[in-house]
Amino acid sequence: MRTNKKQYDRMVKNTSPRSRVLRNCVWAFLVGGSFCLTGEVLINAYRAAAFTLGDARLLASVTLVAISAVLTAVGWYGRLAKRAGAGTLVPITGFANAVVSPAIEFRSEGLITGVACKMFIIAGPVIVYGTLSSVVYGVILFVKGRYGL
Asked: What does the DSSP assignment read for 59-106?
């Protein structure tokens, strides 16, 4: 049986599972929002413990990274990411997951050639780009301030 393009497109449409865009967006919003809410709760808790606002923000960030790393290590972050999708890409927790995942995956290759080499496969370019762009931005600000440009 030969089919033309229209018939083929109709067959694909009829047999493909329905997209659950709305449900996926709601899950991403709820999970990403809960990460952000957790960060705000941590900041308030650290502030209540007599830390300055700057220190409270730093401690909240470190705590979120640690929680994300632990959840990745025990395999829960991956399961959550399958369900929540983009909601797990909140920068600080997603970055921690991107560093920890390859390190855990390649731990059987040893401490140096496995964990140390592989843990920055995904996060390495982000670190390099961030460092390079901050240096360029700093030079521009220095020149601008020094020479009044």
From this structure: HHHHHHHHHHHHHHHTTHHHHHHHHHGGGGG-HHHHHHHHHHHHHHHT
Question: CA of 3: how far to CAs of 14, 15, 42, 99, 147, in Å?
Answer: 15, 16, 60, 48, 70
Listed in sequence order, the residues at least 6 apart from 74 whose beta carbon sits closer than 8 Å to its beta carbon are none
Tens-digit pLDDT profile for residues 77-136: 888 888 888 788 777 888 788 777 777 777 666 666 666 666 667 677 777 788 899 999
Residue 20: CB atoms within 10 A of its CB come to 10
Report d(CA 25, CA 31) in Å as an integer. 10
Rounded distance between C-alpha atoms, residue 127 and residue 8, angstroms: 46
For residues 64 and 40, give the distance between their C-alpha atoms in angstroms, rounded to a whole number.
11
Q: Which of 75, 80, 87, 68 is nearest to 24 (CA)?
A: 87
